[in-house]
Design goal:
By secondary structure, this protein is mostly helical. The protein has a domain at 24-109. The chain contains 4 helices and no strands. The protein is elongated, with a radius of gyration of 23 Å. The termini are far apart.
């Protein structure tokens, strides 16, 4: 019984670790997520002018946002900023969120009827 108490005491009494300069929940992570969501949704919306299938719109919006997010991190890696895998992770999360929201709005605003079994397009 003494060992768990000793271990707990050592953990509590251990010196505080230095503050993480790139925390997972920092203010900049919310910006990465929000900007990526906006870029993905905007890319989806813009591509709807020229692309009909929803999956192509989603791929275009997501590709647009991820390309800009990766480009930003590569630029930071050359020296002007601090490249961060955590930042890019939030870019990916924001891209997924923005793409999903754009797709959901598209489905709600312009639902497409399911093809009937007798129609020639039902086999496509």
């Amino acid at each position: 019984m003494r060992v768990p108490v000793l271990v707990a005491g050592l953990l509590i009494a251990s010196p505080a670790a230095a503050e993480d300069p790139d925390p997972w929940w920092g203010r900049d992570k919310a910006l990465h997520c929000g900007v990526s969501a906006g870029l993905a949704a905007g890319g989806y919306a813009a591509s709807s002018l020229v692309l009909e299938p929803r999956w192509q719109r989603a791929a275009t919006g997501a590709g647009f946002a991820l390309t800009l997010g990766a480009g930003k991190e590569l630029y930071d890696a050359t020296g002007p900023g601090n490249a961060s895998l955590k930042d890019f992770t939030w870019d990916v999360a924001g891209t997924a969120l923005g793409t999903a929201l754009a797709l959901l709005v598209d489905v709600i605003v312009s639902p497409r009827p399911a093809p009937s079994r007798d129609s020639p397009t039902a086999t496509r």
